[in-house]
Amino acid sequence: xxxxxxxxxxxxPVGGIIVGVxxxxxxxxxxxxxxxxxxxxxxxxxxxxxxxxxxxxxxxTAATADKASxxxxxxxxxxxxxxxxxxxxxxxxxxxxxxxxESAKAPARSAKGGAPAVAGPDEYIIKAGDTFAKIARxxxxxxxxxxxxxxxxxxxxxxxxxxxxxxxx
Length: 169
Prior knowledge:
This protein is mainly alpha-helical and 169 residues long.
């Protein structure tokens, strides 16, 4: 026979009951904690869904920002190209104005070429900015008298270096 059955082990069933009660208590505590963890997990899933929504918004905003950056770079290039074209045109205009200024400063040349034009008696050589009115006023004559002694001259198309006659005083 066995030794367990021969001995008086009245403590063994009591130990089993104690272990069973402890297991039940631990199982109940685990169930309560599991329920609490489930609630916490559900709350975290809601927060995770919000984070996912924010992540998609951020990625769409980043894509929009990238497009805006590319558009800005293209606009910068086209603006620079336009400035370069305008700069070249301004350079050409400046050269033209410089030539005009130099020709206005240069002494009037005679129609035959080399020597500067010289006004004879009762003659006047047109300078930059001259009009019949200015010339007449400066020489004490009237515009009508100026037009009378210069019948072939169009007063609106005076040229620098052109000779005109002056009316007698």
